[in-house]
Amino acid sequence: MMGTDAGHITNDIRTLRFHHDEMTQQELANRVGVTRQTINAIEGNKYSPSLEVAFRIARVFSVPLEQAFRYECE
Amino acid sequence: MSLSFQEKSLWVMFVGLIAAFSFYFVTVLPSSAVNVMPDQVVYFVLAVIFLVVTQIVGNSVIAIMDRNTQTDERDRLIALKGMRNGGYVLATGVFLALCTALLTDGNFLFTHVLLGFWLFAHLVEIASRLFLYRRGA
Fold it and tell me: Any CB–CB contact under 8 A between B79 and chain A?
């Protein structure tokens, strides 16, 4: 039986930025094509980006999507 | 607290709307006219001109100070949620304005119930968007 389980998307963007020469939020935002405020909201798990933006973020860090984002069930 | 260009622009619109239409309603509403008078239309036009000028000046100043006017998917989502909330208020206002038109003589009350709810709907939309920007989305 299929059901809906409450969960949320988390990410490791802060860590990935740290491992990429302390890339700033503004620099990442410029490379992804969103605003710095959006990167800040994504990092703080306040906003779940579209698949397109999620893939673009993963591509900036040259990692698979699941290394940048995770879906955590509660 | 750093505000984005969109947030600053919304604050300019919020304050401009309140200032322009506070002036209009404070001036016009004490009237006991049955129909809208020509001098009241002049006050309305003055309020709209004030609003347009404040938006042009305010947004120009913001754009000079903050050159990053880019928008993205989060801005569009927040705008849609804000418009949805404002839409509920506007729909309620239109219904109440129609009731007013049926139950009262003249067009004064009908016009101002409609105008009041239009203003309130805009304020709800902007307040929703400002809240969502602070919350994240």
Answer: no
A47: contact with B, CB 8 A cutoff? yes
**Can you tell me the ipTM of this complex?**
0.84
Which residue of A35, A44, A46 is in closest CB contact with B72?
A35
Q: Which of B3, B73, B133, B135 to probe the A interface (max A CBs under 10 A)?
A: B73
Q: Do B73 and A33 touch (CB under 8 A)?
A: no
Range of the domain at A21: 17-73
Number of domains chain A is built from: 1
Classify residue A9: in a domain, yes or no.
no
Structure pTM? 0.88
Q: What is the pLDDT along chain A (74 residues), one digit of tens a residue?
A: 455 667 888 999 999 999 999 999 999 999 999 999 999 999 999 999 999 999 999 999 999 999 999 998 87
Please give the full DSSP string across A3-67, using - where no structure is assigned.
----EEEEE-HHHHHHTTTS--HHHHHHHHTS-HHHHHHHHTTS-PPPHHHHHHHHHHTT--HHH
Q: In this structure, is residue A2 part of a structural domain?
A: no
